[in-house]
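User: My instructor asked us to take a sequence, write out its structure as tokens, and then describe one feature of it. I'm not sure where to start. Here is the sequence I was given:
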Amino acid sequence: MTTLTPTPKQQFLDANGNPLSGGKVYTYAAGTTTPLVTYTDQGGSTPNTNPVILDSRGEAAIWLGVASYKLKLTTSTDVEIWTVDNIVSASVQALANLSESGGSALVGYLPAGTGAVATTVQAKLRESVSVKDFGAVGDDSDETAKLANALAAAAGNTLWFEPAKVYRATASLVVPANTTLELNGSTIKFVTTGATRNLDLRSGTVVCNGTIENAGSAFSSSGDFQCPIIIGDYGVGTGYNNIRLEKLIIKTARPGGNGIMVTGDSYDISIENITFPDSAYMMIAVLLHWGGANAPASGTTHPHNISIKNLKIGAMTYATASDAGQVLVSACYNVSIENVDVKDAHNAGLYIYSGDYGFYYAPASVQGFANTGITVKNFAVWTSDKYGCVIRGDAASAPGAPIYKIPAIIENLTILAATNNGINLQYAQDTKFIGCLVANTANGIVSDTANCQRIRIQGGIFRNNTDDGIFLKNNAIDCVVDGAHSYANGYAGLETTATNTRIINCTFGSATEATQDFGIRVGPSSVGDILENNICLGATNVAFSLANGTSYGTVSSFLNNVGPSGATGTGGLLQIPFAQMGAGSTAKKLLSGAAIPAAGTWAVGDIILNTAPAASGFIGWVCTTAGTPGTWKTFGAISA
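Assistant: Let's start with the prediction itself. The structure tokens for your sequence are:
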């Protein structure tokens, strides 16, 4: 870089343009007549006379100090030519420019390393902004305007808070897109009223390392209002994306309020390392909820690609009859939940729901994703005032109240106490449970409504529940229980009144069983159940209780099941499995019992052998007209 040489000496002229030979330059402090020294050289080692006497060329070497000067030029006889005030040297002026508010824009900055891009000091410093820059001090006084100004200035960069402070806001704070809030151990406390959103996040934001608290009043009914952190618009259905919440404490004073709510078409959200302290007000810690509530029939939107990890949820003791869960997923897809600890749940620790309208009004491109990709791993509920976990597939508000599959995979779910059922299945279909532990509830897991289908229970322990460890009822269809251990329950290790239930490789009871009446109890309304390779270590009544003497077709296969004394079956209906004669559409059933069937579908030629034959009686009954249960006639007269 090159530059023009500065004038090495100053030359002064008279009124005719001639050198001011013998002229004088008086130097004063700016704005005064107090003499102020100048120098003959740049080092400032030799002072000039004052006034400075010009040579025959009207020249002199006048070096200014760091102060501001007033100069007066006169002839050799002290006739004033001019006076100029407030003069500084170029170096002083440069320093003055740098000290002004825009001075950092004049200084360049080049990071170390190959390929580094040059910028200015101002641009580099503005990559992070402090709330202190805008006057916020964090003394729990109202600093709403200061915080809003700081957020606006930090847009696209990082906003830093001073450590261990409380910053109060009395209105909503919108975090601009691509902005990070580094709370630095401080709290943003919202003291708001009515239908006010608290910390309202936009796409690309990060909020970390602090506390977000609602301390408001006069609450609105909608769950997104006065929720400490809200992502998306519940009413309109707008969503945001690429948002990360990490290392936060969430509090609320709203009765029945939410902690963190993600709604609308929000996606790529990470919620990690969050603590929710004990609360008498919070109903749901993390709510993932469909959006578009203002006009659902015009289209709903659905959060997706959500990751939830490492939540610690305290005792949530707010009392309400509303459906709730400390983590509630309503009409979402591609949701991963991992490592959650719930100390005391209200209504349920985990609640997965198809939503009021399901995906009925979702865009066509989304409908095929309904409830898919939901995984839960390592979720613990220490106690609950109702359920440990609810899986609910119905969309009661949609036309026709459709039922949606919930093919969630729930692994290592632990429920240690609940006043009602541990895992409550409501219209649930295609949900898989792996390695779960459920204890000290009513029923460990139960199909509590109709239309529960294809539930898979793989492994797991179900113990010390007051009724059944596992209860498949209400005509649940095509369920599989594989490798579970159910013992010390009040009635049965597993009870079924379902259709086509497959119970395989399970262990029931214990060698010292003192409470569980049955290993397996197959109810008389069951149809086509398969029991294979199960072990009953002990029962206070019967190892395998299978229907009754007048029920047929309850069990289609009973193989390699071992009771405590080696018995393969005990109970009302012992003659199992029934024999199949022929194949395909001509297959006939051959069973035994004390009476003709009262239920079930039967074909012409099906036979029931009489279990109590007597003189002058008959050998059994044969179906002569197919139906439910069809027409039956006796056959095989027995002589007197």
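For the description part of your assignment, you could build on this observation: The first strand starts at residue 10 and ends at 11. Try explaining in your own words what that tells you about the chain.
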